[in-house]
Write a structure and sequence with these properties.
13% of the residues lie in helices and 38% in strands. By secondary structure, the chain is mainly β. The protein has one domain (2-14, 29-137): Immunoglobulins (Immunoglobulin-like, Sandwich), CATH 2.60.40.10. The strands form 3 sheets. Strands 1, 2, 5, 8, 11 and 12 form a 6-stranded mixed sheet that branches. The longest helix is centred in the N-terminal third of the chain and has 18 residues, at 2-19. The two termini are 24 Å apart. 30% of the residues are buried.
Length: 140
Amino acid sequence: MRFRSLSLVVILALLLSSAGCGGGAGGPALGTVTGKVMLDGQPVQKATIIFTPESGPPSYGGTNAQGEYTMMFTADKAGAAVGKHTVTLEAGSQAVDDNGKPLPDQQITKIPKKYTTKAGGLTAEVKAGANTFDFKLEAK
């Protein structure tokens, strides 16, 4: 089920980028967005982070082994629309070797359900220019 959700996110991002949403002069104003996601003091690895504005298309990013992310508005345009966003997270899928065993450098962080919905309380207000949003999550 999680793989299906992540696939849907990737497909949606590709459709938005191929449709040119925000790619022209008439697109929304964007701010660059980077940051770090931690859960109980540990980096959240291999997760998808989604910034959904009050109106318009969302931006997506993925966390690395240190929990760091960079938001993308389209496949080739970094950033997120200027304005208020709800922020949600989704765990990635575990990379495996040819025998189906998890790769050691591909740890997946289990994300508490409350952070996977818009009701989770994570928000960000993106401004023009560079923005940094660090999220310190708790399992409880």
